[in-house]
Design a protein that fits this description.
The structure is a single chain. This protein is mainly β. 0% of the residues lie in helices and 50% in strands. The chain contains no helices and eight strands. Strands 1-2-3-4-5-6-7-8 form an eight-stranded antiparallel beta barrel. A hairpin with a 2-residue loop joins β7 and β8. The chain is elongated and about 75 Å long.
Length: 148
């Protein structure tokens, strides 16, 4: 079953590869990487899914893994728990096989409220005195001249 939520995406074609972030929510896909946005829809049937994804450039950068900057990709895939894999082609580049792996991102546990955290100081664990590694030096003492 393909879960709703955030996924890390790794995609590749013979022309290159890349990574991005994708949100899957109730049949809708929204995602992006540094140069492209992704949007579309998906359907799930047990462990199998199909998707139609539109890819559009939003920033200057390297060429798309498809060639053209705007494509519509038809995908078929399988999912098992936290991992999904799929493949397909874009109408605008039918000879370019596209493959992707989606890895479900677990939600992080809420951070503890650090404003009320109390740190106890145990003075017995502090160094007792100076040793050979921490001799005090006068800040203006010039270095000794090398012996010739």
């Amino acid at each position: 079953m393909l879960r709703d939520g955030k996924y890390a995406a790794w995609f590749r074609t013979a022309r290159g590869q890349g990574t991005g972030v994708v949100d899957l929510t109730e049949g809708r896909i929204l995602g992006r990487d540094s140069f492209f946005t992704y949007g579309g829809s998906y359907r799930v049937d047990e462990e199998r899914f199909s998707a139609v994804l539109t890819v559009n450039r939003h920033a200057d950068g390297p060429p798309s893994v498809f060639g053209p900057d705007e494509v519509e990709v038809n995908l078929l895939g399988v999912c098992n728990g936290l991992l999904a894999t799929c493949s397909g082609t874009a109408k605008e580049a039918p000879d370019v096989k596209f493959e992707a792996t989606l890895i479900y991102s677990q939600e992080d546990a809420p951070a503890a409220d650090t404003r009320s955290a109390v740190v106890k100081l145990n003075a017995d664990k502090l160094p007792k005195g100076l040793d050979s590694r921490s001799r005090p030096r006068h800040p203006f003492t010039p270095p000794k001249a090398p012996i010739s």
